[in-house]
## 1
Amino acid sequence: MDYSVTVSQLIEKMNLKNYTPEIDTDKVLIMDPGMNRPAVQFGGFFEHFDAGRIQICGNVEHAYIKAMHTEEENIEIMNEFFSYKPPCLIFCRGLEPYEFIIEAGRKHGVPVLTSDAVTSAFVHEVDRWLHVELAPRISVHAVLVDVYGEGVLIMGESGIGKSEAALELIKRGHRLVADDVVEIKKVSEATLLGSAPNITRHFIELRGIGIIDVKSLFGVECVKLEQSIDLVINLEEWSKDTEYDRLGLEDQYTEFLGNRVVSHNIPIRPGRNIAIIVESAAVNHRQKKMGYNAAQELYNRVTQNIMKGNAKKED
């Protein structure tokens, strides 16, 4: 499925000035997160022109247009440029677009915009925003909580206690991102970003009580709009016939949109404090990212003791 944003959303997000207000920017869609600097196209070369991208102009392109052609040639080139129907043309550094550019944009229905931002900074910010907004995504039945800065996705069958665990984590000072439905976006090959649908944002469903508003009950510091997903906790009913990992020497993974995330299967029994287990898993995961693996350390100690014992027997 292809996702898009409108040029109106871009204008609002980046605080752009619109020189072609007669064009309905709500109907102009951006579907490619890439951007193009059209200096070559302004020279009249349109082979391999990536017209589906936002077109960005800085000092170089602005000066080139003025210096390299007569006005008649510029009008002809601009009409050809806009005939490819790029989503929009944006001038950075507060540069005023020439009148013949504005007229060509109006003629072909392509918005001409300006930004006061420095070109490189503007490109970086738009690139970051578009890669999030246009990222492939899925929805999963889960709870997402920010625990010590680690995004923990709590999964499991309906009624197993995901929301109750999230509520206990909130009471312990952590932050809710989403309950029941989590929208996961793949913003890069290494990063998954989770958020809540607008309609359920900041709400938790507790069986026997109903819907509670976390933001209203516990304060704005207890909620978060989005969070990278760093760890998956799968809650499951305890079974005496199931072998559970007791050392954690080898990581297990859950895959979303082609990205793998470290996961743990946590068996549920009466008396187990799931919130403390989730906290410990999050801290342990952070330790591993910093280079310390407790399971490996224990394994090394046991191995060294065995080797020492064998050496004494040989003596």
Note: The first strand starts at residue 5 and ends at 6.
## 2
Amino acid sequence: MTSTRPAAAAPAPFTGDAQPYQGGDPYADYRTTGFPFTDLPDLADRRLGAGVIAANDEFFAERENLLKPEPAEFEPGRFGHKGKIMDGWETRRRRGAGADAPHPAAADHDWALVRLGAPGVVRGIVVDTAHFRGNYPRAVSVEGACVDGAPSPEDLLAGEAEWTTLVPRTDIGGHAANGFAVQEQRRFTHLRVNQHPDGGIARLRVHGEVVPDPRWLKALGTFDVVALENGGAVQDASDRFYSPPTNTILPGRSRQMDDGWETRRRRDTGNDWIRYALAAQSRIRAVEIDTGYLKGNSAGWAALWGRDGEIGAWLELLPRTRLEPDTPHRFLLGEEGPAVTHVRLDIFPDGGIARLRLHGSPTPEGLRGLEERYDRLGGA
């Protein structure tokens, strides 16, 4: 769906070293702030198929650590043959050309290539240097490219790929969440993360909006029209206390309780809900509501509503229906349901679900919208 989000304000950067670790909670002096884009999904989520496909150096710590979903850990006494073992990507110290020029040249830098799990428009990037207190990069920069298919690192570095600067070279801080708003209105499939001149980064998060290839979706015909990887999105939710509602449209089955969406316990007579934007205007034929791993806290009942447009009237697609704990539920809606662009899942009275699947097909109008957006955003 077309985004109407306003441009995000540039977050205030952190710079400089953090204090050496003094013992106790290593996150006690971690520097962070709220960023206006982190409610958007992480396009570099491993669960979507993202990967760090190459790096010029990973002497101290492997590049793959960048995309781990959990916060970076710190074990003070953990050392190996190469030195301190860090939970991130860390390169060796760069040196200059010789005794007369011992410092790295201005252009010297290390890099890593990241394949996004879901190509799309990048709205914000977080370069997290947690636990890299005096060994973080002086500055970082990030570039993006749109190359569909499965290009090799050699393909991306050969000079034919067009790289666009998303984050210009910017000084950052150690042991901090360094956030950058991105203004480029284009679709990207890969990022090149540069650290100047060397150092370590714990985690990388790439928040944005998925822009799928309409040729693929057209070939599929019937698919999950609310799935994140197909361009579905969470617009709002009544409660995000225990886990984010975007979990409900991630690929695959839930792996544990916090891999779904769970609300706090209600003490009133209301109910909880999630509102979604579909990948395109579609007709939904079948619904799956999975309460996997939610046993004593699954939703008791659920109902599904749909509407065409942001302000259309809500139409009942699935009446209020009893849900069982830790169970996948499947419902057939028929072939001639209404064309809808948005759905709302109501749960009663509270609790949670693990996954929502809405199997259907875009209407001709919906497919045209997908194609127009793809072309407008520079799809490959």
Note: Helices lie at 153-157, 214-220, 364-376.
## 3
Amino acid sequence: MLTLVLFIPPLTQNAYAAEPVKNTGGAGTEQSGGGDDTGIYAAARITYSGSVAADGGTGNVTATNVNWTPPPCWYAPYLGAKDFKKKMSEDIESQLNTPGIGGTAGASLTQLKRHYEDDFGWTDTPGYKDYNVDKDGEGMFWAGVENPNEPDVLKRGSCTDLPFWVENGEAPPPRYEQAIRPEILAALAYQHMELPDTKVSLAPEQTTKVNLPTWAWLDKAVFDEVQATAALNVPGFNIQATTTARPVSLTLEPGTDDAVTYPASGECTINDDGSIGEPYARGKANSTPPCGIKYLRSSGDGTYNLQATITWDISWTGTAGAGGDLPDGSFGNGQAVTVQEIQAVNR
């Protein structure tokens, strides 16, 4: 189980934007900003379970849709009203008291202070009276969170709206399209999902002959469905999503153009019993395998790198009956195959 912990850095000079809070990326640490007898937590945690990469790392699934990417950032519960007031007011006062602060920067900080203290708002962004402390325990302030696995720093830091209030049990305002919800958790579970290695059974195994069909197959037990779950649980807001990957086909790439595949496309579909291909049996040496390869040239003193890639159908289910499909994923391994010139019959 991985834990992602939120914390907030000093605010930028722009009164209408804030830096996303950083994310420990599942380092296993927990950070608290105080809390009180209401039970309000100072940190929101996304926890991952199931078949996921260790230490908050990116999993090994590659989306077949090259245009699909996991969310680079999102908005999530951050602090209760009293804790938020303590943190935010300290940050604002610290910056206002910085020597030389003034002009646009000083004016922006003053407006930011009015926004949370004196009910100062603007279009689609209502202000707050004394940081909503009279509602402490009835909701939380939400803030932007960076996805630590997003390599593009600009995308990762694009959730720059100021922290906003959400009542317990209510959805965030519609304008915050990147507010955490089951669909986003499903995408994050997809990003962290770890699929099993794909080692195809071959006959002949490892060493085959030129022009001799090599049979390839996978038993159902080798690659059953895989699940990964992401959950967020804080007072008044509990959601989760489980992403499920089901194998649908195996694609063989011989590692050389001097080969033919069975079928010709190289894509072996799943059988009715959940297996792929057919195990070799004595007496089938000269038969055409339903899934396999025939090498036309020797590998010489080296080997060919046979790539066996499984395509997985990926879907998700989540809180309140939510669910849907995600792009197919793929993951494969390379296997060294030696091809010899000597003709032989596989017995």
Note: The longest strand covers residues 323-340.
## 4
Amino acid sequence: MTRTRTPAAPPPGRRTVLAALAGVALGAAGCSGRTTPAAHPSRKATAGIGSPSPSPVLPRTTPWRPTSAEVQPAAKLRAVRLVEAIGAWADGHGGAAAARARVAALGLPTSLVGRAGPLLPTADQAALQVVDAQYGGILSRSASVLVVCRQWTRRAGTVSAGGTTVDVRLSRSGSGWTVDALHPAHPGPAARSLAPDVRSVLSDERIVLPPAAVADLRSGQVHTSVAKAMLALARTYRLEVSVVRSGHPLDVFGTSRPSDHPRGRAFDVWRIDGHAVVDPATSRGLIERFMRDAAAAGSYNVGGPVPLSGGGAGQFFSDATHHDHVHVGFRT
């Protein structure tokens, strides 16, 4: 199986996406963006006076697919299909009642719609593209799948660009994986001023950030150690970030130990120089170099799919959860 994450039409550049998000205080879930009046095509001279203007067209999207290398592809697919079902709808099919019908068609509890938050804004139409689905944790009978997405909504003649990250909790039984809960990201409001290194990260073309991660950085709740490390790594690599602070489990999955992510002391990378970490075709050497360079950039806790020796005590680790991304954590 192959993993498909990008819209069929070329997606907007990162500066375009950030511009769409700029000027808005990305609030509780980082899912609302700057609203832009849609540009209508010019009418032909033969068009009748008073003819209705065409509705703006939302970006084309493609369903996300797991690769054959996933630890539990069925768990990821279950989580993603739920997010796609709630966060995208055709014209006239918005609202909670329609979303519950779409969720019921998946054989999942319709009560999940009540926890969807930013995935279900008031809009005439919505399109959603899953950027990545990574594990927040994976055990034999439970899992956390972090679904990172962009979303476009239309209200009358206005299109808004945004997106969020959703921590989807699942459990496994004899009949397969089911979804138990949704925890959308809560980045918080934008800060009035930002540290210079954080501003540099937000403008660096070699650091690709999804909407919730942008909102995290704009909130001022991410430590400068994270920003400095991103900038250092970006001198050598093009890094595509999946999660920074919000949308991640509060504790290391399956334990009572606080995670560094909610404290603004970690970030995850799902693609390096255009190569997905989970893809078996991606050079293990590339991933190893990236992990070692992350440690050299100040991380005390680097996890990924490649078990590494050396470093300080416990500096490198590898497990099933980090089969699909590289975790870079900091003490302060």
Note: The two ends are 40 Å apart (CA to CA).
